[in-house]
Request: fold
Amino acid sequence: MICVAGQCGIVEDNSVAGPDVATQTIRAYENIRIILESQGASLGDVVRFVSYLTTRDDVSDFYAARDEYFAAHYPGGGYPPNTLLIVAGLVRADLLVEIDATAYRQ
Reply:
């Protein structure tokens, strides 16, 4: 089992990937993919995501970005389940989304 703690839309230099939830969501998934691959796993091994948004206003943009990203990485469909929570804020005010992943690799 591989537990990936909350990933945000942060790039290598610790800056935010973009000011909008869609850009940050795609980057958070990319960060998860990179971490999983460093452990010999892949997004296909994910059994559950938990996502945190800072406002309900971003729900539709989050799902649009998620669907775009997943279409490329889960070509057969069958996306892992995702729990979505709205929270008062994240560790930095410029972060709009955080995503946890649990993967299981046999």
